[in-house]
Amino acid sequence: PDETARRQAVARHQTLTKPAGSLGRLEELGVWLAACQGACPPRPFTRARVVVFAGDHGVAAQGVSAYPSAVTGQMVTNFLTGGAAVNVAASVAGATVRVVDMAVAADTPEQISAHKVRRGSGLIDRADALTQQEVEAAIAAGRAVADEEVDGGADLLIAGDMGIGNTTPAAVLVAALTSAEPVAVVGRGTGVDDNGWMRKVAVIRDALRRARKVANDPVALLRTAAGADLAATAGFLAQAAVRRTPVLLDGVVVGAAAVVAEELAPGARQWWVAGHRSPEPAHALVLEHLDLTPLLDLGMRLGEGSGALAALPLLVLAARVLGEMATFDEAGVSGP
Amino acid sequence: PDETARRQAVARHQTLTKPAGSLGRLEELGVWLAACQGACPPRPFTRARVVVFAGDHGVAAQGVSAYPSAVTGQMVTNFLTGGAAVNVAASVAGATVRVVDMAVAADTPEQISAHKVRRGSGLIDRADALTQQEVEAAIAAGRAVADEEVDGGADLLIAGDMGIGNTTPAAVLVAALTSAEPVAVVGRGTGVDDNGWMRKVAVIRDALRRARKVANDPVALLRTAAGADLAATAGFLAQAAVRRTPVLLDGVVVGAAAVVAEELAPGARQWWVAGHRSPEPAHALVLEHLDLTPLLDLGMRLGEGSGALAALPLLVLAARVLGEMATFDEAGVSGP
């Protein structure tokens, strides 16, 4: 982000018709956006985009989720017909949705399957999630999608997730990169019961034993313990920073990919704001690790990008405050 | 709020294509809106309205604020020309703004001064804020404005405040009704310095001695320690409940009026949601007293209704989720 625009935005806030600092975090957000854009006041978003990276996970067969894997493909169809939470939240926030099938176990329409690398990622508790070729293809796909979006005019990016079982590899990635124990990262996901929770801890434990050996190599870590959807998300988040485009982060799955992306492209997190805090335990570790303070804390744990989209109007407001409020001089208002 | 619609909304949430409860607080908000409207799914808002009650306060002359009283009238003009934070926040959230001059010390346009009861409210540390006739007129004005708005189609109401010095009477009202001490309710307001803070505590202390004697009579309390703007806001909030219209509360000044409104119309708080948490100490007491959990906690302390407006898109999203998301059956998605 641009230091000159940042300083201009800080100074501009002092001139607007409100007590200094009285918009709190919204003022900081506006300053951050100005720095990301290198422009003060920041331009309002003209194309905020959500990209949902979808993929199945072999571990779903181990009973780590409340839902069957078939739901991933069904929900992808639901995204395309506009019936999911991400569609409604995008509409409210003025964003549009793109779905990218990276590893859904079912067939999906051609328009979203161009980057697909396989049908379901591997059983990470006993084998690698992906081959070396697949992980490289998945990361490259995420980067390519970010490039396509920025080249197409996207000025704010959100990554979303869809994949039954995906909080299990997400927990493993977070544990591997924050040196946490399995019980500290395991959560209920979509609402697994007590027996499922115990199966999930065991899978995370076994997968983590494999993951820790490669924790210092982000590509190897994604190959070993992630999946094509998570690898693509990490590539997407890293490339968004390369393309100097601000990102609003979603919950634990995107957060896990973000922790890896920060390893792929150190400093990328300067281009990110955390949209919300998920009740998933691993998400707290993500936020602490990346030193991000979430905008919302509403107990949301749906994924799809919904938490980031719920926060997007705050970012819109932050930008428009800097662009549209009158100054003390313009409005003829006395200062303190 | 309507119990049948509430139960229908709870049940409908279970049928939508998301894990049960995964939208957290947003689900509760949607249920509350359905109950307020007596309709499931709730109708999207067609006319969300902010009414900013403006008024000056005699205590501003005691040096309790960082700004001179002249700013109240200047900011009212700024609201009318669209340059203030409330205008930008309303535009982002799809709401419109009305300004009502209750006691601005300056002349204001006829369109907003029909309900004006005086120029500046009294020095509450040594005299009553209003006469009995004035307090009754101010409360009636607030009720009349709520009626006008609901009759005009408003389906979501927000009260905002503008008045240099108004966090001082707000703190007194909160202290009187929650049995708190002056130092527990005094805050920096628009950003008063240390000397001003000490003057403010002394004014609150003296005003509170007068206010405690009438704390069990809400009208007498408003007459003694509030001001025409706060009295009108209390009447407005009470009448919104009478008219079964949901309200999104702003920060400490509106919150103080809300505490009094709950005395005027016990149970009114069922029609309210707290938009945000202000860093003003008295606001924490308001939220606790009314048993409300705020949607946002972003360090906002501007007033004008800006905190409620920042939260409004969450309420819009909550309503639209219930109305627009596909059910498991409709989308052909397998359940857990």
Protein topology:
2 copies of one chain form a homodimer.
Chain A: H1 3-15, H2 25-37, E1 48-55, H3 70-81, H4 85-93, E2 95-103, H5 132-151, E3 156-162, H6 167-178, H7 182-185, H8 194-212, H9 218-225, H10 228-242, E4 247-249, H11 252-264, E5 272-274, H12 281-290, H13 306-324, H14 328-331
Helix pairs in contact in A: 1-2, 2-13, 4-13, 5-9, 5-10, 6-8, 6-11, 6-12, 9-11, 10-11, 11-12
Characterize the structure shown:
The structure is a homodimer of 336-residue chains. Chain A is built from 14 helices and five strands. Chain A is mainly alpha-helical and 336 residues long. Chain A has two domains: 3-43 and 320-331, Orthogonal Bundle (5,6-Dimethylbenzimidazole Phosphoribosyltransferase, Chain: A, domain 1), CATH 1.10.1610.10; 48-311, Nicotinate-nucleotide-dimethylbenzimidazole phosphoribosyltransferase (CobT), large domain (Rossmann fold). In chain A, α2 (25-37) packs across α13 (306-324) and α6 (167-178) packs across α12. In chain A, 64% of the residues are buried. At the A-B interface, α3, α4 and α13 of A face α3, α4 and α14 of B.
Please identify, by name, the CATH architecture of the largest domain in chain A. 3-Layer(aba) Sandwich
The shape of chain A is: elongated
Mean pLDDT of chain A: 97
How many H/I helical runs of chain A? Answer: 14
Largest sheet of chain A: 3 strands, parallel
Keywords, separated by commas or semicolons:
336 residues; mainly alpha; 5,6-Dimethylbenzimidazole Phosphoribosyltransferase, Chain: A, domain 1; Rossmann fold; 2 domains; 3-stranded parallel sheet; two-stranded parallel ribbon; 14 helices; elongated
